[in-house]
Amino acid sequence: MPARSDHSHSMKLVILGRDGTINRFRDDHVKSVDELEPLPGALEAVARLNHAGWHTVMATNQPGIGRGLLDMASLNAVHQRLNQLLAEKGGRLDAVFFCPHAPDEGCTCRKPLPGLVTQIGERFNVDLAQVHLVGASLKDLQTAQAAGCIPHLLRGERLGLADEGQIQAQLAQVPGARLHDNLASFAEHLIQEERRARAGARGEQLSPNTVPGDLN
Residue 75 and residue 66: Cα distance in Å, rounded? Predict the structure, then answer.
């Protein structure tokens, strides 16, 4: 196996959930390509992160496999289609990591356990403390916390009918967690934050009125 180069330690990496983050969540699981419905603006958000130098990796629980609702060929077809749709927007996923187990199988990779994220850290040789993990449920926040990542939560259907107080209560369970309206808002936040940090390092102050189109 070739030795990993030192520059990989500074790789800019975002770990994304899937259902409710990139595509619409279904209670009965996404079992086929026909059931894959990207959320508005999500594919463009991934592409924007990529263009800003961020590598994106997906980490997703897929208990439908363990329950016999879909097989590996169907899951691979869904992810192949997702990659095709991303490519059409100029985006990409560097890798997809998934847990195929049902909740009662006692695995170590099912979120909110950190197994999947630990595997990603080992594969890409990154410091997980510098990795952003964004998802659409409390389980994603807990996964980030368990793995030592920077946690981000998206509003949306995965939170169900939770009101603002309930959402804030979930955030409070994971210190440092940040809330965003959707994946596009998260991408905007991350790119703005990086630009401000770079400007600060140069002794400059980035105007808070910078418009999104200026963030390339």
Answer: 12
Is residue 144 helix, strand or coil?
A: helix
The model's pTM: 0.89
- Whether the ω angle into residue 112 lies within 30 degrees of 0, i.e. cis, is yes
**Which residues in 33-166 belong to E strands, given as ranges?**
55-61, 95-99, 132-135, 150-154
Identify the residue whose tokens are 């060929």.
73
* Length of the chain in terms of residues written: 216
**Contacts with 172 (C-beta within 8 Å, 6 or more apart), sequence order:** none
The DSSP H or E segment spanning 158 is none
| Residue at 29: amino acid letter | H
pLDDT per residue of the chain (216 residues) written in tens, 0 to 9: 333 444 445 799 999 999 999 999 998 999 999 999 999 999 999 999 999 999 999 999 999 999 999 999 999 999 999 999 999 999 999 999 999 999 999 999 999 999 999 999 999 999 999 999 999 999 999 999 999 999 999 998 778 778 899 999 999 999 999 999 999 999 999 999 999 988 888 887 765 554 443 333
Q: How far is it, in rounded angstroms, from Cα 78 to Cα 75?
A: 5
